[in-house]
Amino acid sequence: MRRQPNPNRADLYVTTDTTESDKTRGSDPAPEVTNVSDRIVEQFESIKRTRRRRALGWTGLLGFIIFVTIQAFAATELLDPDARIGTLLASLNEFFPITYYFDVIPFLDFGRYISFIRDANLLYDPEIGRLLFQLPPSATDVYAFFFTEFGIFQIFGEAGITLAMGFVGTVVGFPFALVFGTLGSGRVTPFPFNFIFRGTMSFIRAVPAIVWTLIFIPFLGLGPASAALAIAFDTIGNLGRLFVDELEEIEEGPVEAIRTTGANKPQIVFFGMLSQVRTAFIGWTLYVLEINVRIAVTVGVIGAGGLGFVVTAQQNLLQFTNMMATLISIFLLIISVELFSQRLRSRLRSDDVKMGLWELITGFPRRMATSALK
Length: 374
Hints:
Layout: H1 10-26, H2 29-75, H3 85-90, H4 92-95, E1 98-101, E2 105-108, H5 110-119, H6 126-132, H7 139-148, H8 151-154, H9 157-183, H10 194-206, H11 209-220, H12 224-248, H13 252-260, H14 265-274, H15 278-304, H16 307-316, H17 320-348, H18 357-362, H19 364-373
Antiparallel strand pairs: 1-2
């Protein structure tokens, strides 16, 4: 006998079908979860492959740098067994004279350095200094010091000549650098006319200062004059480029404010642009002064005068102790200029504590101790 379905149990069939349908729909997320897991694994593998490639790339670059470095050492003959490095190490006593106290304790004989610095007038010229430092003071000699001998730089001997070359080069080169740097900015001079000034500064920078000195020797002779003019040319290229970069980074707001007042082009440039970079320009000029004093030492090596010339002369005479004394004088000159320039630049910063000259000098040991303990 065929069994008839009971209408009262229809909900069972519906429930059964619904449950089976839910099971079917519930099985759908399983492949989706699997796909997500696969993508995560694939992305992780991709990251590992990228890291491996990057590690191989850095390894290859390091190997290439080492290879090129070896080639450079070979080209400079430092790998030559006949190189004089061993001889230099053996002859250090000529640069650093050692004296023995009680025939036991070795000390560096600074007395020999001081004697040569004094005898060669590297840091002080007594002939010029006696006009200023005398008891009782003479008004005639003081007048002669400032207005006849012009001894402000000459009183420092050979170091003063080196300092004067760097100072003159900075003073003469600054106005030209300011003009070329301003006109070389795209904010002041439209493209491509600004590249006339940029190209000129690039050409000046391409020629080292020592080569500029050789160029000016036929006109001014071999001496401080040609060196100072060469440093001035070098200042135009280097300082002018720094001025261009500063002008490219100025804010547009003040420029627009000046323009809306109906100002003409020179007024916009002076009050809207240069006013924003005045402090930066002064800071860069002081920094270039430091560089120019170093350049003055370099050009002095070829005979332009100053401490650089003394180094060359003592080296040619094989007087290495005197040569080392001159290097000490160069260090004292450079560090003095850097300290002076640094303090001036710090006073330009609004957040720095202002100090007078006397406080700056007398408080130097305390500031050094405080800085060392930080």
